[in-house]
Amino acid sequence: MSRHIVTPSHFYQHATCPHWIWYDRFGDPARKGEVPELAQKLLDQGVVHEVEYVKGLALSPVTAADPADALALTLKLMRQGVDLIYQGTIEAEIDGAIWRGRPDLLEKRKGKSSLGGYYYAPVDIKSSHSIHREQQLQLAFYAMVLERVQGVRPKETAIINVDHERITFRPSAVHIGKTRAAVKEILDVMDGKRPPLRLASKCKRSPWFRECVREAEEGNDIALLYDLDSRAHPALRAAGIHTVQDAARMDVSMLPKIPFCSAQKLERVKLQAESLATGELRWMARPKIPYAPLRIYFDIEGDPLLDVQYLFGFWIEGDGEPRYVRFLAERPEDERAMWNEFLAWTATLPDDFAVYHYADYERAHTLRMAEEYGTSPVFARFASRYVDLLKIVKDCVVFPLYFYSIKDIAKSKFLNYHWRHKKAGGAQSIFWYEQWLETGDRNMLQDIIDYNEDDVVATAHLHRWLLEHREN
To answer: Which residue ranges does the record assign to the YprB ribonuclease H-like domain (predicted)?
Structure first.
């Protein structure tokens, strides 16, 4: 039996959805969907910035496509002691598996190793501002492989971020332990240990998402229940709650203490199960929504890869013809100017208005940007008018849905709202923005603007729907 091969891409797949690895190995390929464009970009993260950064560097590239050939050439360059190896392949057998990686750069450092009076340390080029958790695991992974290859583990690794700044990372014993644990979980899945059913919004980035949903639906599994912490699943199953019907019939007062799920949350889970079982809404209370004659619906588009908010969009009703207003950062470095334009606009608003948004993103990020770029009394006034419609929805009504994003709720049979673009979504907006930055194609920019306008109109549509049901 051949040994399993683990690569850094498995960290991203496992963190996104452990079933991704399982279905790749044991699933029916005909059922596999396409990798969403943003997910593919995350797997290939940093390619454009990488090419830009390495221009002019004196490096020794490894261009062989075959892993065995690439490994042989990399080891040859390491023994020769070249200063900088680009796209080299390293691998080692660790705990009975082949750990294989391709660091963007292998830098020669002074120090004793099996190679002589020097050793190599990994440096990755990423399109982010800081080191994310998966990148830490990846660098620790490379360091552990290099320890087997050259007899010494590099104590210091680094990424080159989107601004071409070097950010040092020193893998500690904790990081090494987490990397080993993550690899063990990945290997367990490769060996056939099926991960427990779990549906989360990030699972939508997996090409096997529909297959995960199908499997959960076939068993009518409690994984379908919105906002039920997956860490509570084992205790619920042990108490005999396996299906949506079980949850709909459960007597919360008779259950043992369920970790990560209070009795109050369990009552909400029961209502969610009843709603799914019948396909109908479950109203808990009359919607309480602050009224204002001027209604502003707000949505932000942001890119976590670049750590930038690039579009503020508003749909405005109550002072004439409804209209869309936007502020755009065409480049990440334009974010401050966009913020200042937004601040100037808030000063033009009348006294009586409310700002409706969906989920906490807009509130949290505008407050953060106010700290970074500066605030004003008019922004403080603006921020004091925030009304989170998601919180209102969760307080008053249960939808028979697996997810409660604005897309899931607005597209449901109850609201029947439609976006113009077939691929519309927050992840797709990020992908479009990155494509715009790379290609300069203004059609991508227009797609983002159209999507954002549809988002704020959808928020207004939800608001009106809630008001209609409040009257009923």
So the answer is: 296-466
Q: What pLDDT is stored for residue 85 in this prediction?
A: 96
Kind of pairing, strands 386-388 and 353-357? Answer: parallel
The dihedral sign for the CA sequence 441, 48, 362, 337: negative
Rounded to the nearest 10 degrees, what angle do helices 389-396 and 442-471 cross at? 40
pLDDT digits (tens, 9 = 90+) for 230-281: 999 999 999 999 999 999 999 999 999 999 999 999 999 999 999 999 999 9
Span of 98-107, 132-141, 333-342, 353-362 with lowest mean pLDDT: 132-141
CA distance 377 to 384: 11
Nearest to 85 by CA among 132, 41, 118, 48: 118
Rounded CA-CA distance 296/392 in Å is: 17
Q: What is the pTM of this model?
A: 0.84
Q: What are the angstrom distances between the C-alpha of 362 and each of 116, 122, 297, 300, 369?
A: 55, 37, 11, 6, 10
Q: Is 98 helix (H, G, I), strand (E, B) or coil?
A: strand
**Residues facing 60 on adjacent strands:** 85
Say if residues 358 and 462 touch (Cβ distance below 8 Å): yes
Domains of the chain: 5-190 (3.90.320), 219-279 (1.10.150.20), 294-471 (3.30.420.10)
Give the up-direction half-sphere exposure of residue 307: CA atoms within 13 A in the CB hemisphere: 13
pLDDT at 41: 63
Q: How far apart are CA 106 and CA 362, in angstroms?
A: 41
DSSP code of residue 38: H
Q: Please say whether the beta carbons of 243 and 221 come within 8 A.
A: yes
